[in-house]
Request: fold
Amino acid sequence: MGKLGNVNLLIESESDSSSVDATSYPVEKGVPYTDHVSEKPDEFTLTGYIIGDNYKADKDYLKQQMKKGTVMTYVGRNIAKNVIILSIDGTEDSSIANGASVSIKLQTIRIANTSWVSVQNSGKKQVVSQKAATTPVYHVTKKGDTYWGLSKKYGTSISQLRAWNKYPDTKIPIGVKLRVK
Reply:
């Protein structure tokens, strides 16, 4: 006996397969070399019968789950968690009155976890924190000061210095306070 999802199966044999892929690069002499090996998903093949008065409905259910890609668990002689159905082959003949023979191929899958979190909007407005206003910095001018020189010294753009201060480039008086940050 075995159970795939919520369907009971009469399983005669279970076979499993594990394999890897390996890159292969040819060389002039000798065996090709490999620099990468990657694991392939495990596969299981179940051979047996679906029996009972509702065997057709059970088989249709398994086909629907296969087409949807539903992640299932198989419990029998072996246990296979996180499997999907790859194929279902069946035969109905006169030797089985209330059932059908089946061969079901399963494959293990990994479920990706996302780091994204869904956030629901409550509809309430929230205050967005603004960058704290910096205290203005001033410079007392000396002979030879220019907006270009102050720009280099304090790291403020020339256009910003012009906007903060009312003096034209060529007529900056000596001894006045200019805003520089």
The chain has a mean pLDDT of 88.
